[in-house]
Amino acid sequence: MKIFIITQNDNQYLPAAIARVCKEFQEEISCIVSLPAMSSKDGKIRGLLQKIGLFGLKASFTFGYRVLKTKALDLFTHSGPSGPFYSIKGVANAFNIPFYEVEKISSPEFHGLIDRYPPDLLVAQSCPQILGKKILDRFPLGAINVHGAPLPRYRGMMPSFWVLRNGETRTASTVHDLAAKLDNGDILAQREVSITKDDTWDSLVTKTKTAGAEALIEAINQIKAGTVKRKPNPEEDATYFTFPTYKDRKAFLALGKHFF
Prior knowledge:
Blueprint: E1 3-8, H1 14-25, E2 29-35, H2 44-75, H3 88-94, E3 99-101, H4 108-116, E4 121-125, H5 133-136, E5 143-147, E6 155-156, H6 159-165, E7 170-177, E8 187-194, H7 201-225, E9 240-241, H8 246-254
Parallel strand pairs: 1-2, 1-4, 2-3, 4-5, 6-9
Antiparallel strand pairs: 5-7, 7-8
């Protein structure tokens, strides 16, 4: 089975999670494609202002410092399969997997990569662009996505923020079929994640990415073995959340929650 992974440029939370999957399926992953980060889809300046509006100046400085530090480490680090990993490209290099950066998933370049590395299964992990039917039909074994929430609840954006904002004590990471509507495909695997009183947005994102990698490995192994037992992801039980507003941030902080 050949696996085609599509993700986004992120050097904080995704490298370790994707490395865990690569370690398990190194010989079967045909290609990793990285798209521009979700926060830059409306332009880098607007994405930056959006993050500052959410995190505030202090947390934005913390996040920015970590991003720059990780980029510097990536320049001078040539990791092997044991890590450490500071970028998606670094993960791909460590496992000798072809890696490409593509601006748009609808581009001829992306379709050309599917032609060049004929896949059986598409794995989307934090993919920031919509995968239309024309693309999904090119994968004989289908397409699956990892979402850091207990679907059908908490569909949409930034689930780790919202479960903290809403005072949840448990969340999850879910692997589901990619479908026409956001986060509504059938569920293949789900891993529960406990939320402690000390969890920040940062720590919870890390925990859900780790759980998501484990759920993804479970789902891929079931697909390989032909033992998948899909569960419904019912629309009537769904809740959906968009990018938090300034008021949402104030409510989050009023609860004593922290980003870092």
